[in-house]
Specification:
With 173 residues, this protein is mainly alpha-helical. The protein is built from six helices and no strands. Helix 1 runs antiparallel to helix 2 and helix 1 runs antiparallel to helix 4. The chain binds fe (ii) ion.
Length: 173
């Protein structure tokens, strides 16, 4: 690979890898949305359940944005099983199995799983946006950037709910 090559993002194999990565996150978003519906039902704290419900709603827009990305790539939306997200959602299910209902331990396990999944998404959208810029796909980069912003906000919200003091304040209401 030559340094300073301005056409670095223009190769067919790079574009094809990019399409594959978009298929991966498309599947991952849908799978996480399903998992998060279950997490919403399993949460002890209503505030946390509401946060999960909000994230499920938000993910609908993120899925639509990915469909827009497929359109901009001249492709039909198609998912490809993402083993990482399958594992992260399985961890959330494990957290539910390993904790009694209605406890802080249950919610702590759920928050942990949700944040791991969220960080996977942040890493994916951040790198995909960068790749889109390398490909000269400004519109795709913009669309991915919008979701990246939302994913970071979701992470902040979950971080706030992890704080035991915030949790206690909410639980006491
Ligand atoms: Fe997402």
């Amino acid at each position: 690979m030559k340094k300073g090559n301005r056409n670095i993002g223009q190769s067919a194999e790079f574009r094809s890898l990019f399409v594959d990565l978009v298929k991966d996150i498309y599947w991952a978003e849908k799978h996480l949305a399903k998992g998060m519906r279950k997490m919403e039902k399993a949460a002890a704290n209503p505030e946390l359940a509401a946060a999960f419900a909000g994230l499920v709603e938000e993910s609908k827009g993120q899925i639509e944005r990915l469909e827009e990305v497929f359109g901009l790539l001249g492709r039909r939306p198609q998912g490809k099983r993402c083993e990482a997200m399958a594992g992260l959602v399985a961890e959330a299910e494990e957290a539910v199995e390993n904790t009694p209902a209605g406890t802080f331990a249950r919610d702590a396990g759920l928050i942990m799983a949700a944040q791991k999944a969220g960080h996977y998404e942040i890493a994916t959208y951040g790198t995909l946006r960068y790749f889109a810029e390398m490909m000269g796909e400004k519109e795709i980069a913009k669309v991915l950037g919008a979701t990246l912003k939302e994913e970071r906000r979701a992470d902040d919200l979950l971080s706030y709910l992890t704080d035991v003091r915030a949790y206690e304040a909410v639980a006491a209401e």
